[in-house]
């Protein structure tokens, strides 16, 4: 039977500066990026559902169409009346340094749990093979909505869904480090697969090496752990068996946006294809290396297709 993955997060309007005062508009967000690379990487048909709230305006309609164009299922893209999607601008200075400005304080995605309570039900999610969420999915919710989300995940887990969590720590989105630490710890305790970056843990948990992060997550009983450390590669553990994988060498890094997101999507696609964790990280690293050689979060479909036809996940089985 076709597998079903539910990916919960926020997709925003992205404005990318081409030249002074001229912007290219697209859509991006950590979980959305992961969902796109997961769907594109799968060798078998898989139902990837994007779970979020958008508004009822024209740009929200455009966002839903963009998600559909990626062949993601949009049934769980709920509508928050009168709200609008979040937006961010990427500006590049004369030295190529990028800076981000966000307008997301009142974004529709923050209302996802309220929309879920009034427009959907647990039954719609039961039976999903996987539920994926990130620290950003948690950060944008009120305390009460975060609690409702944890309760929902508990129910899905009790019905057999595999839970995947990437903390993607963004200090600006949290009221305090304590609140964030508590939420991440609870998320890890629910997770079957954890995919943090070392940087996420450095400030928050004072871990300075990937091995420390790994040990911390093993104590929390996470069965499958992948700790990412940029160009230094990853270390992983699956049912207490450890492995490591270097990053794939890149001729020229153009833009590291979505390196971790694409890595996660690629890893999960490979796992779905029956690839073991120590080989799945190789496909994921190859995909992330391809993504950092291109501008923007989502590489265009034709380029991706050329990459995928040479490097399908199953070709990484050793
Ligand atoms: P996150 O943003 O989740 O912390 P990372 O920055 O650690 O993710 O990157 C995820 C993966 O992307 C790395 O494990 C590596 O495989 C790949 N990657 C990131 N930066 C580079 C780079 N400069 N060269 C090659 N691969 C990279």
TrEMBL record:
<dbReference type="Pfam" id="PF00294">
    <property type="entry name" value="PfkB"/>
</dbReference>
<dbReference type="InterPro" id="IPR029056">
    <property type="entry name" value="Ribokinase-like"/>
</dbReference>
<dbReference type="InterPro" id="IPR002173">
    <property type="entry name" value="Carboh/pur_kinase_PfkB_CS"/>
</dbReference>
<keyword id="KW-0418">Kinase</keyword>
<dbReference type="InterPro" id="IPR050306">
    <property type="entry name" value="PfkB_Carbo_kinase"/>
</dbReference>
<protein>
    <submittedName>
        <fullName>Sugar kinase</fullName>
    </submittedName>
</protein>
<keyword id="KW-0808">Transferase</keyword>
<dbReference type="GO" id="GO:0016301">
    <property type="term" value="F:kinase activity"/>
</dbReference>
<comment type="similarity">
    <text>Belongs to the carbohydrate kinase PfkB family.</text>
</comment>
<feature type="domain" description="Carbohydrate kinase PfkB">
    <location>
        <begin position="4"/>
        <end position="300"/>
    </location>
</feature>
<dbReference type="InterPro" id="IPR011611">
    <property type="entry name" value="PfkB_dom"/>
</dbReference>
């Amino acid at each position: 039977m076709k597998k079903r993955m539910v990916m919960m997060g926020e997709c925003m309007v992205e404005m990318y500066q081409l030249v002074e005062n001229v912007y290219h508009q697209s859509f991006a967000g950590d979980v959305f990026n992961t969902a796109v690379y997961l769907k594109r990487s799968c060798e078998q048909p898989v139902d990837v559902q994007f779970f979020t709230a958008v508004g009822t305006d024209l740009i929200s309609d455009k966002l839903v169409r963009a998600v559909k164009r990626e062949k993601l299922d949009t049934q769980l893209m709920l509508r928050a009346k009168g709200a609008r999607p979040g937006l961010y601008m990427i500006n590049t200075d004369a030295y190529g340094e990028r800076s981000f400005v966000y307008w997301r304080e009142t974004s529709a995605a923050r209302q996802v749990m309220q929309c879920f309570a009034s427009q959907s039900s647990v039954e719609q999610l039961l039976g999903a093979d996987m539920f994926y969420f990130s620290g950003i999915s948690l950060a944008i919710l009120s305390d009460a909505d975060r609690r409702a989300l944890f309760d929902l995940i508990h129910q899905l887990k009790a019905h057999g869904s595999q839970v995947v969590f990437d903390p993607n720590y963004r200090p600006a989105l949290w009221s305090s480090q304590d609140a964030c630490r508590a939420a991440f710890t609870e998320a890890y305790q629910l997770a079957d697969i954890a995919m943090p970056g070392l940087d996420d843990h450095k400030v928050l948990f004072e871990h300075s090496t990937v091995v420390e992060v790994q040990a911390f997550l093993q104590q929390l009983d996470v069965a499958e752990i992948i700790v990412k450390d940029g160009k230094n590669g990853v270390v992983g553990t699956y049912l207490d068996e450890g492995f490591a994988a270097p990053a794939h060498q890149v001729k020229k890094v153009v833009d590291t946006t979505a390196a971790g997101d694409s890595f996660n999507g690629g890893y999960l696609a490979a796992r779905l294809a029956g690839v073991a964790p120590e080989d799945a990280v190789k496909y994921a690293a190859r995909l992330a290396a391809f993504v950092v050689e291109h501008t923007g979060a989502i590489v265009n479909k034709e380029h991706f297709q050329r990459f995928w036809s040479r490097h399908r996940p199953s070709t990484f089985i050793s």
